[in-house]
């Protein structure tokens, strides 16, 4: 809050009002500023705030002082906010409401909404940076009784009356947005019907009220997939997945063979996710799509397997790289070098450190390696017992 | 009389009939969604506040619009690609910094770096967007998680086990980016052994670095925390890139 300057709130020549919003409270960092709720105005050059009751209390920040800003969603009992991160104040800055602040950001709290439109306009102004192209005339000094030129006085009177009319007439609500929320609510009502129907079906399947064929079950699962409804039935009865997942599994089976070979036969699932989605460019896979596809590798007799380590790390590995082989070769490597850390092992095999560690842990689990765990790192030795 | 007819007499609708009904209703719903998309798809993409509303309403009725790329929501509203791509960017940032911070990063720093990586003209993402993308990443194992610290979160991207003791020490370290054994003992009323145990674990996992040269007591620094504190001094070039 120490970046604010006292201001008359009058716009300067070449400065245009973009949007204003009532019901805004200022925050110094995370703390409420010792000010009442007021009006915030955005111009092409500045962010201005004015107390609703006491018009004398008015302050501004040049837009050039803004580094970046972001939204903070509303919560229970909390209004939506826009958080604005600011460059430090220059040492010879004019006086303002705060001498100093431990925060380098302020917040605008929108108690009467309007944050969406304000955010949008602020984004536009920050992108266009109109203040750079239309410098203002000598800024009008704050009410310290100095002289102003006739021209700027005339101009400020015009602007003032415009400001007043805007202030007294409420701005129209941004129609597209409120319409959007209305449409969204209606859509959700219909989606809710689908959810209820699917729950009814699921409970009937459970209680076997009817003659469901395998085919119908698969169809039902695909409906749930389309709607994004969690499947309560197949969590118990491991189904064959949907056709979509089986198709995906086959695609992955083709696509991942070469990358897996290059990486010692194993890749973390997050690595696969990035690889596959970067290759696709659009119509990306969700993390769950990937996991569900990998789960059907075995049933489709593809040469890949999904594997979950004790640590929770999930990998895709080539079936050809059997467990015993991996452990045996890990033991060989460690014996040859006397001892190895995960980093050293990773370098040796061209694996990621994460996966190298998992292999060593596995070998340790099988009793072939033992560890020396110190603050210098985790080192593995052949288990000679 | 066949079994089916008996059920019908009792007035209970059979599952397979409901499935047929669902198929029809699904087609109708798809049409409604298409209409909604034609009007509001752009708004969802551009407006993070609207996205929050959308996500929350879905959650209320029991629908996960991000469960599958094959879902209607993803296909027609394009919300899927937005979050799945964000997931890729999050993974990549975390991977790139892991050697430095051990796999722990503040949500703020992650947000800044993701924004930077997306470039000036890309769609804006909010922290809410990041949080939702991270929640989805959890499905892939690998220890993606969020730890509440100092009013925000630390994002964990490695399977390092962090229990309540570790978490509370991280929270204690948040203000200055480092912590000492004395501070832990004083604030949390622990014994030396317990404090030492927790700090050792953080060291071993690469989440903390030990500064024995510090005047007075040894300091345990958390790169995840102090890199964010120092990154507030952004250069003008970086500042330009961060403005949406």
Automatic annotation (TrEMBL), chain A:
The keyword Protein transport applies. One of its GO terms (molecular function) is phosphatidylinositol-3-phosphate binding. GO terms for cellular component: ESCRT II complex; late endosome membrane. It comes from the Eukaryota. Residues 1-138 form the GLUE N-terminal domain. Pfam families: EAP30 (PF04157), Vps36_ESCRT-II (PF11605). It is found in: Cytoplasm; Endosome. Keywords: Coiled coil, Cytoplasm, Endosome, Protein transport, Transport. One of its GO terms (biological process) is protein transport to vacuole involved in ubiquitin-dependent protein catabolic process via the multivesicular body sorting pathway. The keyword DNA damage does not apply. Belongs to the VPS36 family. Component of the ESCRT-II complex (endosomal sorting complex required for transport II), which is required for multivesicular body (MVB) formation and sorting of endosomal cargo proteins into MVBs. PANTHER family: VACUOLAR PROTEIN-SORTING-ASSOCIATED PROTEIN 36. Component of the endosomal sorting complex required for transport II (ESCRT-II). This is Vacuolar protein-sorting-associated protein 36. It comes from Paramormyrops kingsleyae.
TrEMBL record, chain B:
Coiled coil: none annotated. InterPro entries: ESCRT-2_cplx_Snf8, Snf8/Vps36, WH-like_DNA-bd_sf, WH_DNA-bd_sf. Pfam families: EAP30 (PF04157). GO terms for biological process: protein transport to vacuole involved in ubiquitin-dependent protein catabolic process via the multivesicular body sorting pathway. Its main location: cytoplasm. It comes from the Eukaryota. It is found in: Cytoplasm. GO terms for cellular component: ESCRT II complex. Keywords: Coiled coil, Cytoplasm, Protein transport, Transport. Belongs to the SNF8 family. Component of the endosomal sorting complex required for transport II (ESCRT-II). Component of the endosomal sorting complex required for transport II (ESCRT-II), which is required for multivesicular body (MVB) formation and sorting of endosomal cargo proteins into MVBs. This is Vacuolar-sorting protein SNF8. It comes from Paramormyrops kingsleyae. The lineage of its organism: Eukaryota, Metazoa, Chordata, Craniata, Vertebrata.
